[in-house]
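Hi W., the zinc ion complex you wanted:
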Amino acid sequence: MYKQDIKKRIEKLRELINHHDRQYYVESRPDISDQEYDRLMRELKELEALHPELITPDSPTQRVGGEALEGFKTVEHRVPMLSMDNTYSADEIMEFDKRVRKNLEIDKIDYVVELKIDGVSISLLYENGKFIQGATRGDGVKGDDVTVNLKTIKSLPLKLEPVRGVKIPGTFEARGEIYLSSRMFLKINKEKEKNNEEPFANPRNAAAGSLKLLDSAMVAERQLDMWIYGLGYVEGSVFKAQSEALGFLKGAGFRVNPRIKKCRSINEVIEYCKEWEHKKDSLEYDIDGMVIKVDPFAHQRALGHTSKSPRWMISYKFPAEQKETILEDIIVQVGRTGTLTPVAVLKPIELSGSTVSRATLHNQDEVARKDIRIGDHVIIEKAGEIIPQVVEAIKSKRKGRERKFSMPGKCPVCGSEVKEVKGEVALRCENLACAAQLKERVKHFASRQAMDIEGMGDAIAAQLVDRGMIKDYGDIYYLKRADLAGLERMAEKSASNLIDAIEKSKRNTLNRLVFGLGIRHVGIRAAWILSARFGSIDKIASAEIEGFEAINEIGPVMAESIYNFFRTKENKKVIEKLKKAEVNVKGRAHPAPQGYGAGSAERKALEGKTFVVTGALENFSRQDAEELIRQNGGNASSSVSKKTDFLVTGKDPGFKYDKAKKLGVKIIREEEFKKLIQK
Ligand SMILES: [Zn+2]
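Structure:
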């Protein structure tokens, strides 16, 4: 074939494949067999392999991923991705409508109502009909460039179809939501469980986690999908209404949700919201509410937005799903520090897409306050979608056989006396050898932020304790490959890997070990401070209470806790074991938690600067971020003022963001913050 012909054939193949992708992934109406499709794809791949100079970024072969990223570039959105105000009742929706009509001084208004997909918001940039770049919402102003990963989503059009009667804008942003189907969510979690990994809490977390994977081949396996619901920046104002924009998007090949409805009155809006509140479980993906938008763009522009959210759009959030079931028993769990927690054992019931058979009851006071009894009919709901809670007992359904519950006087696992802790509601088992606590301590010791022993997950730690192979975490270093190979769910290879991981952990920095010891009240930062101050386990162990109290950041309660820890016979023995196994117990120069910021006395990158942290950060809790600021010599404040030098913003920053903007405070994102503390 002549080069010109090859180029033509390649273009033809791409066109065909794009068409079939669209039929399959967007329209759900495939018109060729999988074999025929594979043949086209194979031919294209072969031709491209022979002529790599003809490969273009919008070729369907470029979807498969495989490119490993080192990180994500930051992208500024051309039009900010604003957040939305929420409503929770029909009355509030009515009020929204009233406000809108009053503002516009009109009586009648059209709305577009969409399903609120519980996924990850993204913005897709197209130039001359081609997909150029995709970014996460980030803080609304800037997000992460996830182009390579987005390309693995087959329903994302790399090249747009012509739309009759519309000139496709030269440059525009399509906005939408990336999500994971319930089926894929379950599949991924099953696999995670098999590998002894922490499962994702919900499909949204799974989608967000997948989108941020650095290996796009892995992203492709996750089979993410998307719904496109609108436009961001558009070159030249081409469209007159949201409904029209949706029609264009659909025509151009985007996956637009067929359940989007145009409503002629607010009553129709409310009716539609209520309809989906009842039908939401019939979908193969999660929705957590509805989105209501004023349809005409002219009206949207006239209404404008507050600093935080548009005035022409609002969400209606479905109430947390509640269900009735029977509380069959109350059991008591023992945590790492020995805290006893009552847990409700429920008659299993489907709730918000998963089977619920346990719910936390927090503590004895909570059980008493709600007067929850064993045998009660109870109402449960999922708070924050993850942990089910008992809302109340239905007292009218009592038959007189229900039993009151009280916390046991002895630890349910080891039988030791439990003690009340001064100033806390909790009861605690203080037996250090208690198996329940031991499992938790081993897990903590091996956890990523402590000794980071990969492969020592829940199931393995539990087996090691139950089989008596580990009596304390010092024993981890005396495990043999043969011991591990005998465990359930432990392949030969993973036994070797675990031994290697254990060996490697011996060289960890001191602060990791100190944190891993699990001294009550000693978190990552305190562990770091102790390591930096004392420089070895021996010096920490022999210090007097006053020695700890003299440190600014350590209060009397923590000081006492540290002191007591190293005076306890059992703990002394464990530390001897660690030393004998040649675990590193010394060293002054250690990176701070997770490699962020050394913060030693010599290097104070943030000296004299005042920071406020707002919104949800991805890599740190707010407390951790504030700790790092202090470690690096800066001040962490909770409110924005003229004295604030930097506002560090995470997701959903809130009013502090507005205030900082007003006062001209420098606003930085997490990425920049990380760079500052790494200096
Ligand atoms: Zn116990």
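The longest helix spans residues 3-26.

W.
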